[in-house]
Specification:
404 residues; elongated; four-stranded antiparallel beta sheet; alpha+beta; 19% strand
């Protein structure tokens, strides 16, 4: 019963000085809201990125190292050829579902009054069947004859179609462009749309992507230095990548470590690690605001003790024990801090929701972090309220009653 009475006294004291109480809580509010917002945005980003990479765990890139460590070996003498792709498919037929040269080029395209930068992405047979990042809306998939005959066919993204033609009814239209120094009139045979991605929402505006048979973008000597492979998702991706690289080095009699590989899993792991480090680092910096807020609470509580010296003397003369005074002031500091923590939590969640909604991504809230933030704010209040509470509890009642 006495404990509840102390809570009522603490709340009453806070209500009497509302503006001062709010300003005292401001440091706690800023600190908690920053921590909640940063951790929530970080968790949301990781959740969104992981969702986007779903179904791509067996993708990897095999590439040509730029040069040997001592710079004495010209690695470009061992560039990939289409025969290398065929050899890999034959040797690892049970594992490789899709393997093509990864080629691209960026050029400026003008059609009528509409112009823009276009990224041409090379792709192989059945590209849209295996690629989980795009959906073929109209038209047919890339066929073997497109590769072998180097047909001037193009697949437009929906954004490219709407920009250059102001319509998505583009099948059969001519898409003129200069690629690798050659003027070509591509025939549109397909329309696709990119699946919703946080990267595309944050990407450069004014740049549009299209897909063409990879042969059209290869070097003039028919070589390339990057290969995209869709392997066996049930096997260790690093072991598969090492096996592919070692096999090519053997059949091409190339020096060791000429070929490198990078898996989508490793890229995802790296991104997650970076986001985690950033969240922790920025969260730690935001935590400084909590310490500042705690010091602010301690200062105000010391002022409050001085202002209420006579009140403390009266309570002691009426029978209040030292522990009662100690409990009252610690509770007052804790309640101040907890209220600030709750306001900061609501503010932090709101910032995270607004931020992730702006990029049309789902918000991931960690209940443990939310509850932990409020509990921690209470702990800060208790910690920084001990000194003022002890000062109040140790006041001599006779001297306190004489205080003017």
């Amino acid at each position: 019963m006495l404990f509840l009475e102390n809570i009522k006294l603490a709340i009453s004291s806070i209500r009497v000085n509302r503006m001062r109480s709010f300003l005292t809580m401001l440091g706690i509010i800023i600190g908690i809201s920053s921590v909640i917002a940063i951790t929530s945005i970080g968790d949301s980003a990781k959740s969104t990125i992981n969702a986007e990479f779903t179904g791509m765990s067996s993708y990897m890139y095999l590439y040509l190292a730029p040069e040997s460590d001592d710079g004495t070996v010209d690695y470009y003498a061992y560039s990939f050829t289409e025969d290398d792709v065929a050899a890999l498919k034959e040797r690892f037929s049970d594992d490789i579902r899709y393997a093509v040269p990864s080629t691209s080029a960026q050029v400026k395209v003008r059609i009528g009054n509409n112009s823009g930068q276009v990224v041409f992405n090379g792709a192989g047979e059945n590209f849209f069947k295996f690629n989980t990042r795009v959906n073929l809306v109209k038209g047919r998939d890339i066929e073997r004859r497109d590769i072998e005959s180097q047909n001037d066919v193009v697949y437009l993204s929906k954004e490219a179609a709407l920009h250059f033609y102001k319509t998505d009814d583009v099948l059969g239209k001519i898409f003129p462009a200069t690629v690798n120094g050659e003027n070509r009139d591509f025939t549109v045979v397909g329309l696709y749309e990119n699946k919703a991605s946080i990267f595309s929402k944050l990407g450069n505006r004014g740049t549009y992507d299209v897909v063409v048979p990879y042969q059209l973008l290869m070097y003039s000597d028919g070589t390339f230095d990057l290969m995209e492979i869709l392997g066996n998702e049930n096997k260790n991706q690093d072991m598969q990548g090492k096996a592919y690289a070692t096999y090519l080095e053997r059949i091409k009699q190339a020096p060791e470590d000429v070929y490198k590989f990078e898996t989508v899993q490793s890229q995802l792991s790296m991104v997650n690690n970076v986001l985690t480090v950033l969240s922790v680092a920025i969260g730690a910096i935001a935590g400084i605001a909590l310490i500042v807020g705690g010091i602010g609470i301690m200062n105000i509580m010391l002022v409050s003790v001085t202002e209420r010296t006579r009140e403390i003397g009266i309570r002691k003369s009426l029978g209040a024990r030292t522990n009662d005074i100690l409990t009252q002031f610690i509770l007052e500091a804790m309640i101040l801090s907890v209220i600030g923590g709750i306001i900061g939590t609501v503010l932090g969640i709101s910032i995270a929701v607004i931020g992730m909604t702006a990029v049309k991504a789902k918000v991931a809230l960690n209940p443990i972090v939310v509850v932990g933030a409020v509990i921690f704010s209470g702990f800060v209040g208790i910690l920084f309220g001990i000194l003022p509470a002890k000062k109040a509890a140790q006041l001599d009642p006779i001297e306190a009653l004489r205080y003017e």
